[in-house]
Design brief:
Elements (H helix, E strand, L loop, with lengths): L23 E11 L8 E6 L20 E3 H11 L5 E6 L6 H13 L3 E6 L4 H9 L5 E5 L4 H8 L4 H17 L4 E8 L6 H9 L3 E6 L10 H11 L3 E5 L3 E6 L6 E4 L1
Parallel strand pairs: 2-4, 4-5, 5-6, 6-7, 7-8, 8-9
Antiparallel strand pairs: 1-2, 1-3, 9-10, 10-11
Helix pairs in contact: 1-2, 2-3, 3-5
The structure holds iron/sulfur cluster.
C-alpha cells in the first residue's frame, strides 16, 4: 500500500468487506507449525499483507504490497485444522495491525478455539492494539523498536514515532495491570549500530528488551558474544536471538556474569 495512504496514521486503517459477506483479510501467508515465533510454544503463524514502513532489511518484502483477499472464515479454517499441534497463533506480516477489523475478528476466533494470541507489530497502529487489549484478545505483543526516537522518522521516512511511542505506553501499562500477560520490545541489531542500543534501552524504560541479530546482504551479522558485549554496556537483563544460538536470556556480566539458555 502506498505511503500516501497513511498521511494520517492516527486514523484507523481501511477495512475490507465484500458486499456484506464475511469480513475480508488481505492475506500474506500461513505457517501451520512454528517453534520460533513464540519461544516455548508451538504455534501457527498467520501473515497479513501490507505495511506502511519500508525497512531495508525486511525479510517479508514480498507481502508488503499487493492483494490476496480471503474470507476471515477461510483463515480461521486453516487455524482450526492446525489446532491439535499448537497452543497459540501468532499474527505477523507485513503489519498485522494495519487490518484492524480483520485482525480483531481473527483473534476472537482464535480465542474461541481456546488458543493464545500473539501479535508481532511495528506499533504504527496503536488503535488496533488498544482494541485487542481492551477486548482481552491478545496474550503477547512483540513491539519492534527500529531506532532511538530522534532518528525514527528520518530513518523510516514517515511520521511514525508518536504512534510507536503511544503503542509502547499502551502495552507497558496493560502489561503492568495484567491485561497483557506478555510484552517485549525487539531491536534488530546490525553491525555498526551497536551504540544505538544504549539510547533505546533508556527510552523504552523498564520493559523486556530483545536484541535480535540483524541479517542483511553482505553485512557480517553480530555474533552472540558481540551481542552480549552490547548488553554488558546497558547493564540490564535482555534476551538475545541469533540464528546460530537461538534465544538466550542474558544478564550483564557487570551484574552477575551468567548467561542461561531460554
Ligand atoms: S515494519 Fe516489519 S514488515 Fe514492515 S517493512 Fe519493516 S520489517 Fe518489514
Amino acid at each position: 500500500m502506498p505511503m500516501s495512504c497513511f498521511n494520517s496514521l492516527n486514523k484507523m486503517p481501511a477495512q475490507y468487506y465484500s458486499h456484506g459477506d464475511f469480513l475480508k483479510v488481505n492475506f500474506g501467508g500461513f505457517v501451520p507449525l512454528s517453534t520460533v515465533d513464540w519461544r516455548g510454544r508451538s504455534v501457527c503463524t498467520v501473515f497479513l499483507r501490507g505495511c506502511p514502513v519500508r525497512c531495508t532489511y525486511c525479510h517479508n518484502s514480498a507481502i508488503l504490497t499487493g492483494e490476496d483477499f480471503r474470507d476471515t472464515e477461510e483463515i480461521a479454517g486453516m487455524i482450526h485444522d492446525a489446532r491439535l499441534l499448537i497452543s497459540a497463533v501468532v499474527f505477523s506480516g507485513g503489519e498485522p495491525t494495519m487490518q484492524r477489523d480483520a485482525l480483531v475478528a481473527l483473534a476472537a476466533k482464535v480465542k474461541e478455539m481456546g488458543l493464545f494470541v500473539g501479535v508481532q507489530t511495528n506499533g504504527v497502529f496503536p488503535g488496533t492494539l488498544e482494541m485487542l487489549i481492551s477486548r482481552g484478545l491478545v496474550d503477547r505483543i512483540s513491539l519492534d523498536i527500529k531506532a532511538r526516537w530522534e532518528r525514527y522518522d528520518n530513518l523510516l521516512k514517515g511520521n511514525f514515532v508518536q504512534n510507536v511511542q503511544k503503542s509502547l505506553e499502551l502495552c507497558r501499562s496493560a502489561h503492568r495491570s495484567g491485561d497483557l500477560p506478555e510484552f517485549e520490545t525487539v531491536v534488530t541489531l546490525f553491525r555498526g549500530y551497536e551504540d544505538e542500543v544504549q539510547h533505546i534501552a533508556r527510552e523504552v524504560g523498564d520493559v523486556m528488551l530483545v536484541l535480535q541479530q540483524g541479517v542483511q546482504g553482505n553485512i557480517r551479522p553480530l555474533s552472540l558474544a558481540e551481542m552480549q558485549a552490547v548488553a554488558d554496556r546497558i547493564e540490564r537483563p535482555v534476551k538475545i536471538r541469533t540464528r546460530e544460538d537461538g534465544e538466550v536470556v542474558y544478564e550483564s556480566n557487570r551484574r552477575r556474569g551468567v548467561a542461561c539458555q531460554w
